[in-house]
């Protein structure tokens, strides 16, 4: 963990989460940690998800939409992120090391430090709010109605007023499991956002470097700086491609389930009667809906920044007063402008959708359309 010290706090927190929850993987791992991984992950990952899935199949469609679907789909996305992180863990750590290496060292250290501080505040705020949302699942325990926090079936074990001990054991198990799953899910979101933000920061540095080429007086120094910029541009492209290869599938799954999840959450929120007893549940459901929106907004925003900053590279090359340079140098700039304009850096989800703000609005529109259909169906049943 010493090599992770240069990383921002939010990213270091995610790595500690992976170590504490048995996701950490490296060569020559100690046998006691491998044993601990199975002791932890079997009851709090696989057994938890299995009981949730079986419990969901025991309900009719309306109960499924109201009670379990919004959590079930989020759990599926979390599982994909966690499994993908585990299998690509060594490559992810390499990407983290590259992001703080001398190759990505800032030319304007003060400005980059400010950008990273703002990024860290955003990601830590998202982490804390999501964690508080997971803690709200414990509300049911203190309401005295013996309702389980997340799913109402647990391998047929009886619970309720006649079996209070069973109820409290299962309830606290579910709350702890939900917190663990929330932290794993958010850890994946933070790492994706950090990787995309790193690409954007490097493209912004390249933009300033290209613009300043004309201010370099000596030809040899200018050519050396231009070669350095080209090398760095290729390095950033490879970094972005590696990020896309590792996180493309998890992000794709996240967006596929997010529309249905937000729809199910809004549908559940609309079915809760506004009474003093239901106020904690309304607040918890609203916080969950906001967390889901932020979860898909982060990769869309930072992916959109990559597209915009990549497109600005062509403008920065054109603005470097190329007409003052010699013919050979102008030819190099023209070739690079063709490259940056025709093959701009983008990160895709599942090799289908570009991560941008348009994808975010499309997901919200799909969620609202599905919610309107459900509301219309429910009103039709009530009237008939």
Automatic annotation (TrEMBL):
Keyword Membrane: yes
Chain segments annotated as transmembrane: 36-57, 123-145, 165-187, 246-269, 281-302
GO molecular function, one term: odorant binding
A GO term from the CC aspect: plasma membrane
A Pfam family reported for this protein in Swiss-Prot or TrEMBL: 7tm_6
Localization per record: Cell membrane; Membrane
Function per UniProt: Odorant receptor which mediates acceptance or avoidance behavior, depending on its substrates. The odorant receptor repertoire encodes a large collection of odor stimuli that vary widely in identity, intensity, and duration. May form a complex with Orco to form odorant-sensing units, providing sensitive and prolonged odorant signaling and calcium permeability.
Name the UniProt record assigns to this protein: Odorant receptor
Organism whose genome encodes this protein: Culex quinquefasciatus
């Amino acid at each position: 963990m010493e090599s992770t010290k240069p990383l921002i706090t939010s990213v270091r927190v995610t790595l500690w989460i992976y170590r504490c929850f048995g996701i950490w993987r490296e060569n020559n791992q100690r046998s006691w940690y491998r044993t601990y991984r199975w002791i932890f992950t079997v009851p709090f990952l696989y057994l938890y998800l299995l009981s949730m899935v079986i419990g969901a199949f025991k309900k009719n469609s309306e109960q499924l939409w109201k009670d379990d679907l919004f959590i079930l789909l989020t759990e599926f996305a979390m599982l994909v992120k966690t499994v993908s992180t585990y299998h690509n863990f060594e490559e992810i750590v390499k990407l983290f090391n590259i992001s703080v290496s001398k190759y990505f060292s800032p030319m304007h250290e003060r400005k980059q430090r400010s950008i990273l501080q703002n990024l860290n505040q955003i990601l830590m705020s998202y982490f804390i709010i999501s964690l508080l949302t997971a803690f709200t699942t414990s509300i049911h325990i203190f309401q005295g109605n013996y309702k389980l926090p997340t799913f109402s079936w647990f391998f047929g074990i009886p619970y309720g007023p006649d079996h209070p001990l069973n109820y409290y054991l299962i309830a606290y198990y579910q709350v702890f499991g939900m917190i663990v799953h929330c932290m794993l899910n958010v850890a994946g979101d933070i790492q994706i956002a950090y990787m995309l933000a790193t690409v954007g920061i490097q493209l912004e540095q390249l933009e300033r470097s290209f613009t300043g080429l004309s201010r370099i007086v000596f030809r040899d120094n200018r050519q050396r700086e231009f070669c350095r910029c080209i090398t760095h541009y290729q390095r950033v492209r490879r970094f972005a491609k590696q990020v896309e290869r590792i996180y493309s599938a998890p992000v794709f799954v996240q967006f596929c389930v997010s529309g249905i999840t937000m729809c199910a959450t809004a549908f559940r929120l609309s079915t809760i009667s506004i009474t003093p007893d239901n106020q904690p549940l309304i607040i918890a459901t609203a916080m969950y809906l906001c967390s889901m929106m932020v979860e898909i907004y982060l990769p869309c925003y930072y992916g959109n920044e990559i597209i915009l900053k990549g497109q600005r590279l062509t403008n920065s090359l054109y603005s470097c007063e190329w007409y003052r340079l010699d013919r050979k140098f102008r030819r190099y700039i023209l070739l690079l402008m063709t490259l940056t304009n025709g093959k701009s850096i983008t990160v895709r989800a599942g090799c289908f959708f570009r991560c941008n703000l348009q994808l975010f609005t499309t997901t919200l529109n799909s969620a609202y359309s599905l919610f309107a259909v459900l509301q219309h169906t429910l009103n039709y049943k009530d009237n008939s």
